[in-house]
Structures are given as C-alpha cells and as structure tokens.
C-alpha cells in the first residue's frame, strides 16, 4: 500500500524538507503541500489522502481545529501532528480532536516515515510514556458515559479484543491470549473501531479510560 500524505505547515522550508525526505520512502507518496489549516481543510475536501502531517501551531485555523474538521470531512483520513515541543495542551487538544499521534520536528527521517505508515495502518504514533501522559490528561476531564450501549453493540469476542486493545496489547499478544490467528484479530480490531467510531488504538485507550473500562494502573503493554 502506498500512503498518500498531505503536508500542512506554515514554514515552507520545513514542508520542502519533509517532502524530499518522505519521497525517498517507497511506501509514501506526497499528495500535496499547504501552508495553513484552512488550506489543509480545503485540500482534503477536494481530494482524499491517507495521512495529514499537520503542524499543530499555525496562524488562522490552527492544527487542533483543522484536525477536527479533516476528521469530520474524511473520517478515514488520519492526522499526525507535528510540534516543536513535546506533549503540551496543543498536542492533547489535537489528539482529542482525532489525531492519531504526534512527532516533534527534530524526529529522524526514518521515525517520521515509520510513523506516517503506522497511523495509516490504524496504529498510534506515540510512545508508552506519551500514552500514559495522555491518559492522565483524559482522567482529569469529564467521562463521556454511554459505555454500556456501545459495549452492547460488540460481540463477546469483540469485547474481549476491546479490553486487550485498551490495555495496550498488540495483535500478536491478543491472538495468543484468545487462541485465534492474527488475521482474525485484525478483523475483530477493525470491527471494534468501526462500531465504536474510533480512528485507532490510541483512541481505544482514551475511550476505555473515559468510560471506566480501564482504571488507573491497569495499562500494561503487550
């Protein structure tokens, strides 16, 4: 699969550098390059892309608002946030708006390319420490509720997969624990994400904490 990427950053030099860097990866195609959140929204409205590499701080419509609108217009499009800083309120806001993770602008070319491909495949581009910090941020907010109705839409096996996903288990670990094949796990994961209306595994973790499926301290990695 070739991942079509839109670059959105108000620094033209950075966009050009990213385009040159990512174009070297056979897995990635640069679909476009824009300098503002408004231009990113207009681009995805006219043309579908797989991933938007989005600067979180831009004049006018910032990366948070642009992320929310991109996800509304194109629910299948993933957003990967670029930031000069590490986790802060802007990054948290973008993730709550639907971004699948973040990268700092000093990330290595390989890290950027791998993160783009990962989020296109439904993974989250965040390390364990960042996910833990994100969960802490979510816990300070108000729970959304509605978990019982959402869980009722899942089959018993899908509920098992949901809980393992939320605990941080990868597909191989889930397959081992449920005694099924990795391909079967992939099918269940897609069904869980679709039925809950979530874009990726990161948002499964957030949803699970918001709705009391997981409790603090119950986030082992697999």
Characterize the structure shown.
The protein has 222 residues and is α/β, with parallel strands linked by helices. It has 11 helices and 5 strands; from the N terminus they run E-H-E-H-E-H-E-H-E-H-H-H-H-H-H-H. The protein has a 5-stranded parallel β-sheet, sandwiched between helices. Helix 4 (89-96) links the parallel strand 4 and strand 5 (102-104). Helix 6 (128-139) packs parallel to helix 11 (201-210). It is globular, with a radius of gyration of 17 Å. The model is unreliable at 217-222 (pLDDT under 50).
Which descriptors apply to this entry?
222 residues, alpha/beta, 5-stranded parallel β-sheet, 52% helix, disordered C terminus
* Radius of gyration, taken over Cα atoms and rounded to an integer in Å: 17 Å
Shape: globular
Task: Round the mean pLDDT to the nearest integer and report it.
Answer: 83
Report the helical percentage.
Answer: 40-55%
Helices, by number, come to: 11
Alpha-carbon distance between the two ends: 26 Å
Measured by DSSP, the beta-strand proportion falls in: 5-15%
Helix/strand order: EHEHEHEHEHHHHHHH
Q: Which stretches of 5+ consecutive residues score pLDDT under 50?
A: 217-222
User: How do the strands line up in the largest sheet?
Assistant: 2-1-3-4-5
Q: Structural class of the secondary structure composition? A: alpha/beta
Largest sheet: 5 strands, parallel
SS elements, strand count: 5
């Amino acid at each position: 699969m070739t991942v079509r990427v839109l670059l959105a950053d108000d620094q033209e030099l950075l966009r050009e550098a990213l385009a040159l860097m990512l174009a070297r990866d056979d897995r990635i195609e640069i679909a476009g390059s824009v300098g503002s959140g408004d231009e990113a929204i207009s681009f995805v409205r006219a043309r579908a892309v797989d991933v938007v590499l989005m600067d979180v701080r831009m004049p006018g419509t910032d990366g948070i608002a642009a992320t929310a609108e991109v996800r509304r217009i194109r629910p299948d499009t993933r957003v990967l946030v670029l930031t000069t800083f590490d986790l802060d309120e802007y990054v948290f806001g973008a993730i709550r708006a639907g971004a699948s993770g973040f990268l700092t602008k000093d990330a290595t070319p390989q890290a950027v390319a791998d993160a783009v491909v990962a989020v296109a495949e439904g993974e989250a581009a965040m390390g364990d420490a960042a996910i833990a910090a994100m969960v802490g941020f979510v816990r300070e907010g108000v729970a959304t509720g509605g978990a019982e109705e959402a869980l009722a839409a899942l089959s018993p096996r899908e509920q098992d997969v949901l809980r393992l996903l939320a605990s941080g288990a990868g597909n191989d670990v889930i397959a081992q624990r449920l005694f099924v094949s990795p391909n079967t796990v992939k099918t269940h994961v897609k069904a869980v994400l679709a039925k809950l209306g979530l874009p990726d595994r990161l948002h499964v973790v957030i949803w699970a904490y918001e709705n009391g499926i997981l409790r603090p301290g119950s986030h082992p990695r697999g």
